């Protein structure tokens, strides 16, 4: 309900922002010191239609009745269908798929996967453990520093995906709360991603808009100085005030059963002589019982069996460990001839059987996973992976009942009891992130030098303008495939297709906002209200508006909506439009106040056990600090 209320308030604010801009406001050219030919055009039907499309898209992004990438794919269809007013041609509507930003982002996902499969991140994790020696502040400094610097070289989303298992294992071994480390990890990756063109898809998308509207694409290190300043300031904040504001939501605990409060829902029963279950198969019997319960394990004559259990038959004297609530348990005892072992407390040690490969694990739904928006029943998860689900954690909220009907989101954590075969499948599946399991994965460590050389080559070729960034990135992908850093069949799983389709679908919307005059009109309306403010304050205003917007919708959507308006505003003010582009770009990577504004925040939300307000508590001071510092630095580095 709290998230719904936040989304509703956010929607009202966004809708009022766009709608009030279309209220007639008298503009005094003398006061603004601008040429009368630059005054706002008359409102036309095209502007109204494009604004309605934007508002509908924002509504759908907030409530997600369908996936955001599907919404984005619908945008070009609508724009072309209404091209009489939107002025978007078929070629322009499809330009997002051939856009250099889209291609470069696709290549960066593959390059990042090549780095991950080399095992380099795990070597870094081992070094972190050696360097930090169990000191929380030292852990925080090394984790934020390394994750941020790495995010400057490859896309920050896979960096966080690789660091989460490392951080949770480090926290477990050193008795540190993972909550103290995971929000800083996400924030550091965001700020680190602003140091080079390749750090985030937002940079590449903004570069495309800057190239089209200003004929000034970003170079590889265009804003590295500014990014480094922001990164250093951010790290200092996270190590000082931010460290004390970050809550300890998950207490250091070796027993996952206790951590997930599963004990009250796990119990042991015995099948008594005369039970109607005797002789019947497990699968058929559970279907007929049709209650909210799960058979986790059968113990028979000292031997233990976990899923798959459907083909086995119940026998008298079988000990069953079941997940259910007390009311359902009493119903089972009364109708199925079971005896409750009330004195038995089920622990992690009792559930696991290392010799048989039975293990409790935490699995995070990764950003872009095919499970996003679907229930476990819809994807047939239990049967597909032969596993028992004991709990689901979303932020601070733990769920132990009706779990099969929960629509999953990125960052959700599943507590599973599984076997080694399933564990291997999950380890090699990019839809999941397995915590506390980094030492078990098989990596191609002999390929580390080649993988590093490929990344360095991409950065060098792009940075020296020898090749366009997209081409150098594709060259890096080809090098990794030919040298065996990544297998051809792995590249398709490595790409987050949601981001690709989101980019491809939203780029034409930016074109429509600019070509219909909507950006020009909104810029004039903003100036009519705030045109008396100095250019530096207007720059800060655009940074603030974009950062607030990116906290509630995607960072890429924020860039699409704000860059055309920012450029128009700067041109009317006779200010440097490129400075305004940089402000919007950096603000779009500053979603510190909500877990929904940026994919890395979502990824740490569940593993950290955070509450929604934790991001406001830790992120708001940092957001305010950067809202002041970033525009001032932009003015110094690029001028107004």
UniProtKB/TrEMBL annotation:
Molecular function GO labels: monoatomic cation transmembrane transporter activity
The keyword Membrane belongs to this UniProt entry's keyword annotation: yes
GO biological process: potassium ion transport
Signal peptide: none
Any single Gene Ontology cellular-component annotation: plasma membrane
Keyword Transmembrane helix: yes
Regions crossing the membrane: 45-63, 181-206, 226-245, 450-482, 494-513, 525-546, 580-598, 618-638
Pfam families in UniProt: CitMHS (PF03600), TrkA_C (PF02080)
Keyword set, alphabetical order: Membrane, Repeat, Transmembrane, Transmembrane helix, Transport
Alphabetical list of InterPro entries matching this protein: Cit_transptr-like_dom, DASS-Related_Transporters, Na/sul_symport_CS, RCK_C, RCK_C_sf
Domain RCK C-terminal: 254-338, 348-432
Main location: membrane
Localization in the cell: Membrane
Membrane topology: Multi-pass membrane protein
Protein's name according to its UniProt entry: Di-/tricarboxylate transporter
Organism of derivation: Halobacteroides halobius (strain ATCC 35273 / DSM 5150 / MD-1)
């Amino acid at each position: 309900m709290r998230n719904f209320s936040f989304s509703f308030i956010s929607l009202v604010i966004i809708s009022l922002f766009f709608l009030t801009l279309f209220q007639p406001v008298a503009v005094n050219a003398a006061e603004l010191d601008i040429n009368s030919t630059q005054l706002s055009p008359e409102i036309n039907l095209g502007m109204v239609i494009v604004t309605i499309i934007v508002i509908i898209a924002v509504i759908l992004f907030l409530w997600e009745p369908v996936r955001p990438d599907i919404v984005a794919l619908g945008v070009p269809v609508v724009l072309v269908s209404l091209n009489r007013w939107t002025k978007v041609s078929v070629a322009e509507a499809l330009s997002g798929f051939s856009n250099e930003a889209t291609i470069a982002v696709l290549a960066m996902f593959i390059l990042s996967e090549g780095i991950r499969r080399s095992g380099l991140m795990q070597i870094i994790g081992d070094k972190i453990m050696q360097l930090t020696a169990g000191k929380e502040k030292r852990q925080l400094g090394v984790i934020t520093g390394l994750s941020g610097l790495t995010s400057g070289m490859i896309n920050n989303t896979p960096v966080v995906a690789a660091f989460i298992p490392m951080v949770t294992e480090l926290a477990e071994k050193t008795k540190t709360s993972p909550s103290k480390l995971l929000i800083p990890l996400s924030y550091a990756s965001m700020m680190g991603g602003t140091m080079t063109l390749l750090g985030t898809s937002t940079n590449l998308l903004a570069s495309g808009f800057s190239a089209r509207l200003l004929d000034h694409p970003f170079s590889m290190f265009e804003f590295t100085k500014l990014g480094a300043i922001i990164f250093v300031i951010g790290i200092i904040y996270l190590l000082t005030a931010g460290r004390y504001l970050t809550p300890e939501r998950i207490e250091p605990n070796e027993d996952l059963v206790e951590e997930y409060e599963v004990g009250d829902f796990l119990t042991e029963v015995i099948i008594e002589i005369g039970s109607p279950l005797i002789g019947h198969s497990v699968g058929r019997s559970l279907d007929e019982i049709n209650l909210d319960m799960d058979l986790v394990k059968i113990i028979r004559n000292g031997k233990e069996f976990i899923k798959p259990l459907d083909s086995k038959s119940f026998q008298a004297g079988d000990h069953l460990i079941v997940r259910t609530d007390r009311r359902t348990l009493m119903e089972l005892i009364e109708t199925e001839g079971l005896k409750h072992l009330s004195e038995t407390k089920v622990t992690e040690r009792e559930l696991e059987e290392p010799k048989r490969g039975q293990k409790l694990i935490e699995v995070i739904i990764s950003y872009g996973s095919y499970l996003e928006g679907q229930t476990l029943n819809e994807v047939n998860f239990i049967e597909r992976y032969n596993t028992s689900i004991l709990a689901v954690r979303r932020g601070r909220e733990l769920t132990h009942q009706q779990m099969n009907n929960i629509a999953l989101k990125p960052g959700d954590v599943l507590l599973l009891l599984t076997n080694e075969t399933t564990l291997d499948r999950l380890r090699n599946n990019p839809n999941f992130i397995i915590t506390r399991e980094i030492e078990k994965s098989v990596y191609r460590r002999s390929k580390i030098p080649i993988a590093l050389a490929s990344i360095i080559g991409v950065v060098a070729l792009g940075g020296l303008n020898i090749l366009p960034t997209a081409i150098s990135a594709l060259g890096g992908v080809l090098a990794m495939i030919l040298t065996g850093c990544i297998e051809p069949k792995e590249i398709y799983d490595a790409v987050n297709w949601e981001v690709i389709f989101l980019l491809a679908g939203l780029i034409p919307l930016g074109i429509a906002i600019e070509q219909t005059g909507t950006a020009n009109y909104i810029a004039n309306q903003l100036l009519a209200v705030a045109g008396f403010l100095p250019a530096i304050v207007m720059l800060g205003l655009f940074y603030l508006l974009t950062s607030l917007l990116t906290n509630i919708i995607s960072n890429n959507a924020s860039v699409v909506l704000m860059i055309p308006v920012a450029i128009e505003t700067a041109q009317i003010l006779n200010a440097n439009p490129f400075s305004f582009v940089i402000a919007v770009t950096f603000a779009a990577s500053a979603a510190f106040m909500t877990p929904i504004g940026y994919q890395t925040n979502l990824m740490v939300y569940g593993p950290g056990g955070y509450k929604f307000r934790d991001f406001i508590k830790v992120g708001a001071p940092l957001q305010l600090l950067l809202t002041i510092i970033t525009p001032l630095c932009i003015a110094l580095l690029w001028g107004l």
